[in-house]
Amino acid sequence: MTGSDKAxxxxxxxGPDATSKVFEHMDDVDIKKISQSMARLGHVPRDVIQGVVTxxxxxxxxxxxxxxxxxxFVKKILEKALGVQKAESLLQELRxxxxxxxxxxxxxxxxxxxxxxxxxxxxxTIAVILxxxxxxxxxxxxxxxxxxxxxxVVIRIAEVDQVSPEILAEIDEVIRKELTALGGxxxxxxxxxxxxxxxxSYLDRSKEKKILDRLDALNPPLAEVIRKHLFTFEDIFKxxxxxxxxxxxxxxxxxxxxxxxxxPDDVKDKIFRNISSRAAEMIKEDLEVMxxxxxxxxxxxxxxxxxxxxxxxxxxxxxxAGRGGDDVLV
Length: 330
Known about the structure:
Layout: H1 3-14, H2 16-23, H3 28-40, E1 43-44, H4 46-52, E2 66-67, H5 70-82, H6 84-95, H7 98-107, H8 111-118, H9 123-130, H10 135-144, H11 147-159, E3 162-163, H12 165-179, E4 188-189, H13 193-200, H14 205-218, H15 220-229, H16 241-248, H17 253-259, H18 265-273, H19 277-289, H20 295-314
C-alpha cells in the first residue's frame, strides 16, 4: 500500500469530523492523493486495518473491516474542510484523474519497455498517452518506436487537442489490463503542435530529420507548421548582432567551438564578428586542428546553445520574432 492508502484507511476509521480537521492542515496535493485512495478503496479487511492502525485494535470490530462510503464520504469531508465550491472543483479532478495515475506509473518505467509495449497499440492510443508525458520522455519513446509508427504518432499528438473523460478512462482501463501491473462533458488539453515542437527539442537532429521527411509525405501542412515553430542552431544567427553578442557571453568557448564544427562559413563569420577578436582567433585555431568528431557530439553542443537561447527568451533577454505566431518587431 502507498502512504496515501494508509492515510485514507486511518481517516476513514476516524470518521468525517476528524478527517475534515486533518484536511484543514494539509495542502491540496496531499488531500487529492488521500481522497483518491478513499474513493477507490472498497472493502478494507480487518487485518489490513490492524496493520495500519495497530493502536486502535482494541476498538476495531473483530468480525469485519469496513466499506469505504466512496464519493459521498469524500464530498462531505471536502466540503467541511474546503467549502462547497473548492470541494466540487477538487472532486471533478478526482473523477477524471485516472489517466494522471497512469502517467505517474509510466514516468517510472524504462522508455524502451514502454516503446516495445506501445508498438502493438493504435497510433491514436499511443498519441493520447504520450501527449500527457513530459517532453523528454515522449521524445525518447517516439524515437524508440518502429519507424513506420513514429510520424503517425507525431501527427496524432499534434491533432489530439482535446479528449473526453470517457475516452481517457477507456484508454486507461485497456492499458492497465494489458500491462497487468500496471472522467461528463469536460475536456482536457493533452497535445497540439506545441507539444510536438517541445518534444522535437529533445530529439537528435538525425531522428528529427527522418520524422520530418516522413511527415512531408504523410502530412505536408503539419510538417510545414512544425518546421516554422522549430528553432535551430542556424536560426540563432538570423538574430541581430546585439542579441547574438548577449547569447555568446553565456556560452563557453569549448561548447561554441564544437557546435561550429559543421556550420557553414556565413554562420562562422557572423559568430566571429560578434565575439572578441582574441576569442575568435582561439576558436579559429581550435577548428583548424580539430580532428574528426561525432556528429552527435556536435548536435549536443548546438542543443546546449539552443537551450541557452530559449532560457534567455523566457527571461526576456532576447526576442525571437516569428515563433508561435506572427510576431512583428517595431
